[in-house]
Design a protein that fits this description.
Shape: globular
CATH topology of the largest domain: Growth Hormone, Chain: A
Helix content: over 70%
Strand content: under 5%
CATH superfamily of the largest domain: MFS general substrate transporter like domains
Order of helices and strands: HHHHHHHHHHHHHHHHH
Number of helices: 17
CATH architecture of the largest domain: Up-down Bundle
Radius of gyration: 22 Å
Number of domains: 2
CATH class of the largest domain: Mainly Alpha
Length: about 450
């Protein structure tokens, strides 16, 4: 077998499992619908006579739904069958969009209807997301989780950054807004049906203990889940690391970079779109490369270093004299941040016990969701040249210093690649022993946090 064939076989290995195929297809369809909706939503709001404040209400409502429900999603993912949590979340999104279709069809649709639907869609995403991340290890052997997360990262980059927005723009120009809402509703309906067909443990090659993990055992109290989280140094330190980096980088990238391109480099919206496209292409390439390779040795250290490499170019962006110089920096960010995301997803799935996995993932999600808006507010506080330069430099250099401190304080060298770490302790036992004296804890279970 050629190296290309082996790489392709490794990349697609998780799709051999029927239940994971169904989950993957539901993920693909719902993400594509989200990508279309991302572009279509402003035009639907404008058709209804809404202005920028009306659109801000809709976007803000979705953020409120996400932030307010993400911890609830973690609890549900640990307390009820994850298949059911994901399926009902998709069904709720389908119902919310279905109401929009009916109201639009009778000519009564207003911006406030969009606000209500956005609130439900945000809450649904907050509940289904942690459950889906926690569910994947129940459907895929540990040695294939690396490839599964790379596949999902590829889909996310393609649908949310490239195909979905392009398709949304085309549909809005060819069809009316009602048709686009119908298509998005259908995407969630089909995704819900795919999840309903999942039968954990019933597919060929299923691992019996995985099937048992898919059904919740005796619920672990939330305080015990928090005790586990704060009892594992690698986990809470690196989640804090992630939150600080998001706080430093999100605002400059999302708020200040467009002004930098326009005011100092004399670019326009097409240039900014090209920069985003380069980031997306680099992310797709990274996902494909990772999926075709085995998990490397020294997994956690490489993950943390990848995020640091992806973050560092921000410090230079404010000083470049020409727009084209931003493009390789965007490619570095897109590639290495994606490497870190894939590594993180795999390690959190293999290192955190199933009994608390949903809540740990939801806490990590909350940090990402809450700090991105705060970073945008901080970036909008001042507009002076020195202030902007300071934010870019701080955002690119402080992660490097944080990484050096983390490498000294948390041992990242002992972790073996997924599939080689040996048997994980029983969930109840692992949670019970969290917070024990350092020699008795599994200090080799280390991971790195996600960076948006």
């Amino acid at each position: 077998m050629s190296s290309l064939s082996r790489s392709l076989s490794r990349s697609l290995a998780p799709l051999r499992h029927r239940d994971y195929r169904l989950l993957f297809v539901s993920y693909l369809i719902s993400m594509l619908g989200d990508g279309v909706w991302l572009v279509a939503l402003p035009w639907v709001a404008m058709e209804l006579g809404g202005d920028s404040s009306g659109l801000a209400l809709v976007v803000g409502a979705e953020s409120v739904g996400l932030i307010s429900c993400v911890l609830v999603g973690g609890v549900l993912a640990d307390r009820f069958p994850r298949k059911r949590v994901i399926g009902w979340s998709f069904a709720a999104s389908f119902a919310a969009l279905g109401v929009l279709v009916v109201v639009h069809a009778v000519g009564r649709l207003t911006v406030w209807h969009l606000v209500g639907a956005a609130l439900v869609l945000g809450a649904s995403a907050a509940i289904s997301g942690p459950a889906a991340d926690a569910f994947t290890p129940d459907l895929v052997p540990e040695e294939e989780l690396h490839s599964a997360n790379a596949l999902e990262s590829t889909v996310r980059s393609l649908t949310m950054r490239m195909i979905g927005p392009a398709l949304g723009g085309m549909l809005i120009s060819l069809l009316d807004s009602l048709s686009v809402i119908v298509l998005n509703a259908v995407s969630f309906g089909v995704a819900a049906m795919c999840v309903a067909l999942i039968r954990p443990g019933a597919s060929a090659g299923a691992v019996p203990e995985k099937a048992q993990e898919a059904e919740p055992a005796e619920p672990v109290p939330y305080r015990q889940a928090l005790r586990y989280l704060f009892g594992e140094r690698w986990l809470w330190v690196l989640i804090v690391w992630s939150g600080v980096v998001l706080l430093l980088q999100s605002g400059p990238r999302q708020v200040l970079l467009p002004f930098l391109i326009s005011d100092r480099l004399h670019g326009d919206a097409r240039d900014y779109g090209l920069l985003i496209a380069v980031t997306g292409v680099a992310a797709v390439v990274a996902s494909l490369v990772l999926g075709a390779r085995q998990a490397p040795r020294d997994y956690a250290r490489k993950m943390l270093l990848a995020w640091t490499v992806g973050a560092a170019p921000l410090a230079l962006m404010v000083f470049v004299p020409a727009f084209w110089m931003l493009l390789p920096m965007a490619a570095v960010y897109g590639y290495f941040s994606t490497v870190g995301n894939v590594y993180w997803s795999t390690l959190i799935q293999t290192s955190v016990p199933s009994a608390v996995r949903g809540r740990v993932i939801s806490i990590d999600w909350l940090g990402s969701l809450a700090l991105v808006p705060l970073s945008a507010v901080l970036a909008g506080v001042g507009s002076g040249r020195a202030f902007v330069a300071a934010l870019f430099v701080l955002g690119g250099t402080l992660p490097v210093l944080l990484t050096l401190a983390t490498l000294r304080w948390v041992d990242l060298t002992a972790l073996k690649p997924p599939g080689e770490a040996g048997e994980q302790a029983a969930p109840g036992q692992t949670v019970e022993t969290a917070g024990a004296p350092a020699p008795e804890r599994r200090e080799s279970q280390v991971a790195a946090p996600p960076v948006a």
